[in-house]
């Protein structure tokens, strides 16, 4: 079945660009950001462990500090908010809460819940920390992309930033050892059009066998 290229999803996907020039006077409310984050967290994650954490920075003085940590990227200070997406390498510790909630919401019964909890506790705590961090980073990418598309659907603009001093960020915001920064997302209203970007031909990146 062919999907029409003018569907709302495709329109949003094609309209979303990485915006670096923001209107510093435009503000997005806390409640709007909360709604976007809630919708973004419907993204899939490994074993549904949801190993993401968010730090939403709107205070102008703190954004000024963060700009220095983010190698002086202007959008850190001029956007309405910076959403720091972080990973939780001890995501398995919330397994009981997650699957108990799944039962309460009618997504599974108690027998499946117990199997899922047992499998998680047998696997994740014994995995090397690097493996768990990689899982969290991958899942953070999924939730980040979903967040950016939701923002665009609401008429807002975003850009992701991996270029920042992650060690200094962790120190400044006193992150516990198992929480680590992955990406910063600037959120706001564009002050100038974003540059377009090209994509490699599909035949260079995809094979069919």
From TrEMBL:
Gene3D superfamilies: NADH Oxidase
Organism expressing this protein natively: Peribacillus huizhouensis
Keyword annotations from UniProtKB, A to Z: Oxidoreductase
Family classification: Belongs to the nitroreductase family.
Pfam family for this entry, one: Nitroreductase
Domain Nitroreductase: 15-189
Protein name from the UniProt record: Nitroreductase domain-containing protein
Superkingdom, natural source: Bacteria
Lineage: Bacteria, Bacillati, Bacillota, Bacilli, Bacillales
């Amino acid at each position: 079945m062919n999907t029409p290229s003018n569907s709302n999803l495709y329109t949003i996907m094609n309209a979303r660009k990485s915006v670096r020039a923001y209107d510093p006077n435009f503000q997005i409310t806390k409640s709007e950001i909360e709604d976007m984050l809630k919708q973004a967290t419907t993204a899939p994650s490994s074993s549904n462990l949801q190993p993401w954490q968010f730090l939403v920075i709107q205070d102008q003085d703190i954004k000024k500090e963060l700009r220095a940590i983010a190698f002086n990227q202007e959008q850190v200070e001029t956007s309405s908010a910076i959403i720091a997406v972080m990973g939780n390498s001890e995501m398995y510790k919330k397994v009981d809460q997650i699957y108990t909630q799944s039962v309460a919401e009618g997504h599974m019964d108690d027998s499946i819940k117990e199997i899922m909890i047992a499998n998680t506790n047998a696997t994740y705590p014994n995995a090397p920390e690097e493996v768990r961090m990689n899982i969290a980073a991958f899942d953070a990418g999924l939730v980040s992309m979903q967040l950016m598309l939701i923002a665009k659907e609401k008429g807002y603009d975003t850009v992701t930033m991996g270029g920042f001093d992650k060690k200094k960020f962790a120190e400044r915001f006193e992150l516990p050892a198992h929480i680590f920064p992955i990406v910063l997302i600037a959120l706001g209203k564009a002050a100038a059009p974003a540059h377009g970007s090209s994509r490699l031909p599909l035949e260079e990146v995809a094979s069919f066998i």
